[in-house]
């Protein structure tokens, strides 16, 4: 019963309400002038992220879902933001991206995906590309292995990163279709994500267990797959035997066109 614990007890538990420990949300908000929202789509358990500059109102959406485009567009409008980019971390197999529809709903917004995904978009990017919005910027890191075109977007001060399906909380993206390769994924995570600072908060594209955020330190210590050796990791991934995503046959062709609304 946390309600009856004294503050010292809460602090000992590292609970955000203790006042002595900053919770993840508070820490994310520490970056002066950054508007940040994590949004959820329950059918495919997909997280969409809205980032914006409080001063200029310029904004970016990461991994929007088609069915939630009206919600996302309304939030952008309610907050008085100017959505510059709707960016995908990769060509998703489990849901249709909202980028095509958002472009229609919010004229001026440009779709973004990696060149290596083979998908269409207004802007095709690669390792090193920088997505600017106001005084903020997302650096692009190429993190293939779940798919060839997977990207991780890293905020310029390395306090937050958006890992798509490359790294999930205590897990990682499957490697059994869409050019998946466990060896490539292992290398991507270790060289491009685990090299970020320990305190860097990691925001995945999905979570199936009710969690919302993790950190480099946590995953380096606790990820049950990626703390293993490469050979052990390959064995785990090759033995997952997961059912195919329910929407894969409609999602992949649509996402190669940046969502069904894209002409
Ligand atoms: N049941 C879901 C699909 C679940 C799934 O396969 N998730 C992917 C990411 S979306 S392609 C994955 O990589 N999972 C890794 C894991 O360990 O679960 C559906 O039908 O949509």
TrEMBL record:
InterPro entries, alphabetized: Metallo-B-lactamas, Mito_Persulfide_Diox, POD-like_MBL-fold, RibonucZ/Hydroxyglut_hydro
Secretion signal, residue range per the UniProt entry: none
CDD domains: POD-like_MBL-fold
GO BP, sorted A to Z: glutathione metabolic process; hydrogen sulfide metabolic process
Alphabetical keyword list: Acetylation, Dioxygenase, Iron, Metal-binding, Mitochondrion, Oxidoreductase, Transit peptide
One Gene Ontology term of the molecular function aspect: sulfur dioxygenase activity
Reaction(s) catalysed (UniProt annotation): S-sulfanylglutathione + O2 + H2O = sulfite + glutathione + 2 H(+)
Subcellular location: Mitochondrion
Known cofactor(s): Fe(2+)
Residue ranges of domain Metallo-beta-lactamase in the record: 45-206
One Gene Ontology term, aspect cellular component: mitochondrion
SUPFAM superfamilies linked to this entry: Metallo-hydrolase/oxidoreductase
Family per record: Belongs to the metallo-beta-lactamase superfamily. Glyoxalase II family.
Subunit structure comment from the entry: Homodimer. Monomer. Interacts with TST. May interact with RELA.
Protein name according to UniProt: Persulfide dioxygenase ETHE1, mitochondrial
Source organism of the structure: Pleurodeles waltl (Iberian ribbed newt)
């Amino acid at each position: 019963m946390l309600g009856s614990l004294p503050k010292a007890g809460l602090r000992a538990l590292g609970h955000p309400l203790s006042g002595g420990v900053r919770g993840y949300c508070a820490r994310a908000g520490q970056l002066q002038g950054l508007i940040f929202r994590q949004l959820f789509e329950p059918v495919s358990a997909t997280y969409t992220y809205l980032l914006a500059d409080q001063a200029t109102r310029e904004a970016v959406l990461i991994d929007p879902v088609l069915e939630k485009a009206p919600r996302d567009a309304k939030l952008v409008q309610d907050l008085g933001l100017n959505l510059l980019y709707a960016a995908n971390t990769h060509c998703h197999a489990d849901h249709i991206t909202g980028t095509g529809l958002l472009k229609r709903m919010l004229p001026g917004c440009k779709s973004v995906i990696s060149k290596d995904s083979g998908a269409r978009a207004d802007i095709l990017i690669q390792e090193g590309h920088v997505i600017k919005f106001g005084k903020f910027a997302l650096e692009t890191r190429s993190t293939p292995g779940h798919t060839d075109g997977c990207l991780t977007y890293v905020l310029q001060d390395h306090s937050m990163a958006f890992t798509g399906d490359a790294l999930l909380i205590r897990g990682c993206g499957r490697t059994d279709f869409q050019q998946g390769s466990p060896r490539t994924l292992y290398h991507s995570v270790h060289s491009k994500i685990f090299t970020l600072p320990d305190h860097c908060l990691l925001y995945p594209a999905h979570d199936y267990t009710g969690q919302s955020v993790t950190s480099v330190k946590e995953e380096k210590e606790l990820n049950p797959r990626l703390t293993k050796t490469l050979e052990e990791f390959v064995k785990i991934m090759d033995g997952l035997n997961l059912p195919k995503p329910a929407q894969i046959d409609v999602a992949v062709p649509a996402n190669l066109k940046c969502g069904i609304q894209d002409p």
